[in-house]
Every structure is written in C-alpha cells, then in structure tokens.
Amino acid sequence: MKILISQQVPSNLAPYEILQNQFGAELTFQPFFLIEPLSAKEFRAEHINLLDYTAIVFSSRHAIDAYFKLCEEMRFKVPETMKYFCSTEAVAMYLQKHIVYRKRKIFYGTGAPASIVALVTAKHKGEKFLITTTEGSNTTPITTLFSNAKLDYTVGVLVKPVPQDLSGKDPAGYDIAVLCNPADVVSLRANFPDFKQGDLKFISFGKAVVKAMEEAGLEIALQAPTPEATSISKAVELYLQSRK
Could you report the per-residue pLDDT of 216-228, keeping only the tens digit for each? Predict the structure, then answer.
C-alpha cells in the first residue's frame, strides 16, 4: 500500500509508524508547493501604500518575512508605533526575528479569526488595518468579521504558492494520495497536465482543498478533519480500516 502525503516529513513520526506496522503502508512525504514572497513589483500591482496602515494582521511566519522583506525593498521604515495583531502566540513570537519584541505593541489570538477581532477593543478601533494573506487564500472568515465590526481594513497578498517539481512522485504510482491545500491541486495539474485518477484514492484534509479537488474533477474517498479523524495519520488509518 503506497501512500503519498503532500506535506513535509513530520517531526513526530509515531502516528505514521502505526500505519506501517498495522497495514504495511509505504509512506512518501512530498510538499506539492513552496510559499514564496511577492517581489516589490508584484506587490505594487495591488496599489497598496504601506504608509497608510497603522496596524497589520499576520497569520503566518511566511507573511511576516515577506512583509519586512518588502519594507526593505521599498525603503519603507516600519514605525515603532505599528500595532501587530497575530493569529497565534507562535506567529507573534516570530516577530522577534525582525523587531525588538518587548518594545512593540503586539497582540495575539487563539488561531480563530474571531479571536483576532476580539483583540481590537475600543482602544484600537481607529486603526487602519492591513490583513496579510497568501495568493488564492479565502479571507472571507476574517474580512466578514472586520466588516461587521466596522473596522477600516485592506487585504494585501504578500506571499504566493509556487508548484514544486514532482518528478518521480507521479500520484498515479500510488494507491492513496492526501491533499491538504488548494495549491496542491494546482501543482498536481501543473506537473501532470494529462493526469487521470484511475484507481487512485484521494483523502482531503482541510475544508479549503475540497472545493479545489471537486472543481478539478477529483473523486474524494475520505474528507477530513472530522471528530474521528483529527489528523492526517488518523484519517489514513480510518480509511485503511474501512477497506479491511
């Protein structure tokens, strides 16, 4: 049983060893795309003036690196008064790579868009927010909340997914493939324009990838996460058990 997973090799392989021991699974981890920062030229096409914003929203480390890279390329000195609203504490702590953390106004949520909006108390409602995102991402969950709260915001794309070279990793050579991001589908089509699903079984992990897979005409054997399948390894395990 050959299984292709569109992710980096995880730091904890223990859950996957269960798949190998119980089902004789042969696992291959291969990211289908890389996240790269936009160039200053690409960013300028969005007609966003960094000087206009007094607060910025980050949901990933990639966006943080891209933002400060753009600031350097565009010779924009980030003011010390800038307020940073981050999706999680881990993202917020990453800011230390670029700024003196203890001297800045940094706030972080629990990972849910609502937790970020909850940080914007009356004290911060007058700020002009730049919500950073990845090209092709669905920002509706957070922008709807910002609009409902009558906050002044703009969405800015700072990073983009770039298909990886999947030579030697043709999904047709596997029994199961796990896709986790809409960019996985884009990369699949870019690498294998004539791809036919055949007997290959797809497992989707994440709501966003389901729509992309359906639009690409890919049949999904199992959708996750679910209360029973909270991780990729558990989703694969449940699927293999169902085939016994």
Answer: 999 999 999 999 9
